[in-house]
Every structure is written in C-alpha cells, then in structure tokens.
Amino acid sequence: MPNDRADKILQLVNDAKKIDVTQLADKLHVSKVTIRKDLTKLEDKGLLQRKHGFALINNPNNLSYRLAQNYDTKLRIAQRAAQMVAVDETIMIESGSTCALLAAQLGKLDKHVTIITISYFIANFVERYPNLDVFLLGGKYQSDSQVVVGPMAKAALANFRVGQLFIGTDGFDPNTGFYGNDIMRTDIVQAMAQNAQALNILTDSSKFAAPSIIRSFTADRVHTVVTDSGIPQACSRVLQQSGVQLIQVDA
Amino acid sequence: MPNDRADKILQLVNDAKKIDVTQLADKLHVSKVTIRKDLTKLEDKGLLQRKHGFALINNPNNLSYRLAQNYDTKLRIAQRAAQMVAVDETIMIESGSTCALLAAQLGKLDKHVTIITISYFIANFVERYPNLDVFLLGGKYQSDSQVVVGPMAKAALANFRVGQLFIGTDGFDPNTGFYGNDIMRTDIVQAMAQNAQALNILTDSSKFAAPSIIRSFTADRVHTVVTDSGIPQACSRVLQQSGVQLIQVDA
DNA sequence: GCGATTTATTTACGAACGAAACCAATTGTG
DNA sequence: CACAATTGGTTTCGTTCGTAAATAAATCGC
C-alpha cells in the first residue's frame, strides 16, 4: 500500500471519526477490496478500528490517535532512537506517541531493557515483549491520555536515577525552547528530567512549527533531539548552538 | 437472550478460544442470526471479541476473561457492594474481576468516589465516568494481569489510609481462611489491607469450593464478604463464627 | 383465563467480508 | 536487453454480515 494513500485514509478516518468503505473507495479512486486490505493493515498497526462496513478512529487524545499522524516518520525516529539504548540499560520514557514506538522497537530488538514510565498505554503496548521490564510510576490517573501525574508520581521518582530520559514535545520556539500543552504532564516530565543524566527528545518535525502553551525545557537542557529532515533551518541552527546533538532521519 | 444460553456461549468460546458462528448455532440449536445477536451483546459487555465469522476470547488471565465467568452473579454482587460506599468516600480496590464491576457500578451511580487501585484494567474500565477519581499505585507491571506489584507498590501505599478495601479471592478453606494464587499479588493485597480499616471480600460462591496456593487472610481479618447464595453451609458458618458480616445476594 | 404487549427467534435479502486467482506495472539480476 | 520476482491493484466467488419483517413464546393487566 502506498504511504500516501495510507495517510489519506487515516486523515479521512480521523476527520470523520467513522467512515464507510464505500466512501473511502470512492474518494481515493480504488476498489473496495483494496480499501479493505488497507484497513486491515492499518488495524494491525493499531491505528484504527474496523467494523462491518466502516472504520472508526480510536478515542482521540488517546495515543492510538496521535500515533496515526505521521506514523512512518515516527517509526523511523523510534528506530534510530532505539540504537541509543544499550543492553540491560534502564531508561525512563514519557508518554509521547513516538516514545511508545521507541518502546516497541526496543522490544523487537530483543535486548533486555528496563523501562520506567508514566504511561499505561506504553506498558500495555509492549506487553508481548518478555525482554522488557516495565516499572510504572503511581499517581493520579488521567484517563484520556492514560498517564499518571501529580505529586504522588513525582514522589515515586525519588526511587530512580537513570542515564537517559526519552520524551516527546508539543511545540518548539527557537527563542525560548520546548513546550507542552498539558500542565500536569509537563510538570511530571520536568521532575523526571531531574532524575536523568541525559534528556532526549523524540519528535517529528511538524512540532517545530507548532507553538504550544507551557514551556517545558530550554534548549540547552536537552542532550539529543531525534527528528526528521523537515525541521526548519532556524530551529536546527538554534539547537546546535545550544549544544544539542541533533539527529535527523531521512524523510 | 436467556442467561443460560449466554453462559453456554461463553463456556464454548472460553474452551475453544475461537469458535465460529455456525458451530455455535449448531450446538445450541438456534439460528445463526440469533447467535450473532447474542455475540453482539456479549461483545458490548466486553466479554468476548467478534471477528468476521467467529468469536474469540480475550487473553485468558486477563480480567476480561475472568469477567466472563458467572457474569450475572458478579454483577449482582458488585451492585450490592456499591451500596456500601458513601459519596465522596475514598476506597481501595484490588484487581479482581468482581472488583472491576464494583468500580463500574460506582461510576454508574454517579456519586463522587476516589478509588485507589493497583489495576490498570480497572482504571481504564471506568474511564467514561467523570465522577470517579482514580489513583494508581506504581510498581513492577505484570502485563498479563495488568496490575502493579512489588516493593515499589508497597512503598507507595504509605501515602494512603482508607476506610474500606475491596478485594476478590481465589479460594477459601474453612479451617485456614482465604487464598490467592499469585504470590506477588497476594503480597501487595496484604500490604493494602494494613492501610485499610475494613477488609471486604467480593466473590462469587464458586471460590468457596476452590482450593488455592497462598494464604492471604484468616477469616477473622475480614470485615464483610459479599457473595451469592451458593456458598456451602460449612463456609458460611465459619465466617459468621469469625465475626464476618456475610452478605448473600440472590442466585 | 384471556387478550395485549413484550421478548425471543426465525426467515429473507442486499451489502460487506476474506481468500484466491488474475492482471498490470516496477524492480532487480544475469 | 530479457525475464524472473515483487508490488499494487482488481475481479470473482462462496460465506458472513446486519437489518427488517414475520412468527412464536412468555409475561402482564385485569
């Protein structure tokens, strides 16, 4: 299946929440059989749900939804990031969609890694990989994003000190740094960063155009950014001036 | 749909892991259309999954699987237990299937309750009820049962002290008390009990016949047992002699 | 005890399904 | 350049799907 049709399908499904096979076949000028095959593959990737006659999107706000956007780019970023993790290392992972793919990649590579995370989605996402040990922080459960936050989660962090923390971002401003859009999640991520030697950000380049609400980190706090080649030059220049290791995977 | 056919379908699906509509219609002497309607309802309850042509059971060990056994009895037990919880109360809930239904009942009653649990399944199960606040303990994640266990989870308990704890059980022996079948889960449940004034057990009566491996609690530690009327008289006598409040819902 | 209503089931039918055979285009290899 | 192998797509076929209308059984009110 060509990637651009997959993207279009996801776009249409996301927009409509629910759309039937006939409509998709119509809009994309292919047969229904082809659409059905596409949908089966996308369902296998966990990007949507199929029902008899139509497809529907998983609860937005949910990671499954966010995963659907720029899936292939995120997958390549995650594959690259997985190389940064050593056998038997213990890492922290935040709740971003690209972070979830990183965890899955580590699972596929079949090297033993211990993961500490605030995301129950990620914990479940990697269920089938016995080489991954997962520790979850406790705290107030945000059911829409499937993460724990709040003072209890921060307190639980006291038990851990790791080499690397992997997070996503919701936005970036060349002058002021990285941003989040949920104050509780931003808060816990900042606390995680205090217990990690290296802060690594995984994000597709679209976030470098997007402004957001709450500043999470200034650029000089960040050790490595893994993104794709679509990042604006103004951003990449700032990052490198701030001493950030910038890794760009091919678009 | 008559309850007994529903039970038979679940039985057959559980035994076979996967069974097609034609076979079900054959064995239960009803039309395929009727089977399909039944399956749709059972899927809505979350007790199985439908695919094109057949039904399959959710990962055993998983709560969805255990929920499927004696569903109606468990629901009545949960409904009764829900009456024991006051508005704005904070309770602890362990990971049993009947406990999950209790949480859902509390959600439906639309009274505000704060729930502290070790079960990600329960946290997600009640996602749609805004009147429930859920706090999850942190710890090592057991992906098959979707709970957190271990020393970290026990340490997190230090922050909480509640009036009521609701748990399930895997077995009961009149002479020695209640039993579990997973040492890690039994361990964390015992720790939870130390931080709760009243220990309440929710279980269908089948468990009173079933022996299990690890003793969790002697009968006199238990405040209330909610079960159905199928409990052996020897057991009910012992419980009452031990000062347990025994509540039996109609079978 | 008996019509009225509800609930359970079946029959009938057009739409949707998965699997397999088939038909290009594209790619890689000698 | 030829010609296998791969990939993306369609057509066809027998089966399963959900819905609606028809029928049978159970329940209720009086």
Write a structural description:
2 copies of one chain form a homodimer. In chain A, helix 6 links the parallel strand 4 (90-93) and strand 5. The longest helix of chain A has 14 residues, at 3-16. With 251 residues, chain A is an alpha/beta fold. Chain A folds into 2 domains: 3-57, Orthogonal Bundle (Arc Repressor Mutant, subunit A); 68-249, Rossmann fold. Chain A has helices at 3-16, 21-28, 32-44, 63-68, 71-82, 97-109, 120-125, 151-156, 183-194, 233-241, and strands spanning 18-20, 49-51, 54-56, 90-93, 113-117, 132-136, 139-142, 147-149, 162-167, 171-173, 177-180, 196-202, 214-217, 224-228, 245-249. The mean pLDDT of chain A is 92. Chain A has a 7-stranded parallel β-sheet, sandwiched between helices. Chain A has a 3-stranded antiparallel β-sheet with strand order 1-3-2. In chain A, helix 5 crosses helix 6. Chain A is globular and about 55 Å long. Chain A is built from 10 helices and 15 strands. Chains A and B meet through helix 7, strand 6, strand 7 and helix 8 of A and helix 7, strand 6, strand 7 and helix 8 of B. Chain A binds a DNA duplex (30 and 30 nucleotides) through residues 1-2, 20-22, 30-34, 36-37, 40, 52-53.
Give the CATH architecture of the largest domain in chain A. 3-Layer(aba) Sandwich
Order of helices and strands of chain A: HEHHEEHHEHEHEEEHEEEHEEEHE
Please bin the fraction of helical residues of chain A: 25-40%
Given as residue ranges, the uncertain stretches of chain A (5+ residues, pLDDT < 50) are: none
Number of strands of chain A: 15
Distance between the termini of chain A: 18 Å
The backbone outline of chain A, from C-alpha atoms, is globular
User: What's the CATH class label of the largest domain in chain A?
Assistant: Alpha Beta
